[in-house]
Specification:
Helices cover 22% and strands 28% of the residues. By secondary structure, the protein is an alpha+beta fold. A 5-stranded antiparallel sheet has the order 1-2-3-4-5, covered by helices on one side. A hairpin with a 6-residue loop joins strand 2 and strand 3.
């Protein structure tokens, strides 16, 4: 997987504000709020981060170490989130994400 990778997903929460598309798209109706789900590798290669952010300063994150196993865990978490129809704060908290 190439880093960083970002995907927009629907949410039921207010992320102060949510992302909105400015033109119609069959995957993302204009009336729905979106969050950006991403997985990155830190610039210094010290680890990985999976994060979910609204369009401003409201986000939740989970950090992983820099081993090969940690890389696999981060990618697995990212894929777990993007397979969902909606990504909500309560679900992220259950998984261990913290507010950023």
């Amino acid at each position: 997987m190439k880093f960083p990778t970002r995907v927009f997903k629907h949410t039921h929460n207010d992320w102060y504000p949510c992302w909105k598309l400015d033109r119609p798209d069959a995957r993302f109706p204009l009336s729905k709020g979106l969050v950006q789900v991403s997985v990155i590798q830190f610039i210094d290669k010290s680890g990985y981060r999976v994060s979910v952010w609204g369009a401003d300063d409201d986000g939740m994150e989970m950090d992983f170490g820099n081993s090969g196993q940690d890389r696999i865990k981060a990618i697995h978490m990212f894929k777990k989130l993007i397979k969902r129809d909606y990504v909500n704060k309560s679900y992220l908290a259950q998984l261990g994400f913290v507010r950023a």
